[in-house]
Write a structure and sequence with these properties.
Blueprint lengths: L8 H16 L3 H42 L5 H26 L3
Helix pairs in contact: 2-3
Length: 103
């Protein structure tokens, strides 16, 4: 037998270590618990962020109304506010759609 055909001791050790690691891995239930906790935190942050953005959007709409009252209304500001609010609502719906597949 040539040395290239024999199983070297370090190769056997590497295979044994990999087998021990694979046997000792935590179950799927452990990973599910971590992912569920992470998802709950993301949902809480998303809810708080959306509420804050809605409040800022409402203030922006009032400011645009005051600008219109004084004759300084600009359509670019209106479209910027409307586009930003649209993106927030779109992101909220997208996150809701993604999260509906996890339950």
């Amino acid at each position: 037998m040539t040395p290239s055909n024999t199983l070297r001791p370090w190769t056997f050790l590497a295979v044994a270590v990999m087998a021990a690691i694979l046997v000792g891995l935590p179950s799927d239930a452990f990973a599910q618990g971590i992912l569920t906790a992470g998802l709950q935190r993301v949902q809480a942050v998303q809810t708080a962020a959306v509420q804050a953005v809605y409040a800022v959007g409402t203030i922006g709409l009032v400011v645009l109304g005051v600008f219109a009252f004084f004759g300084r209304f600009k359509w670019t500001h209106f479209f910027a506010l409307a586009g930003g609010m649209f993106l927030v609502v779109l992101a909220t719906q997208l996150f809701s759609f993604i999260q509906s597949g996890t339950s």
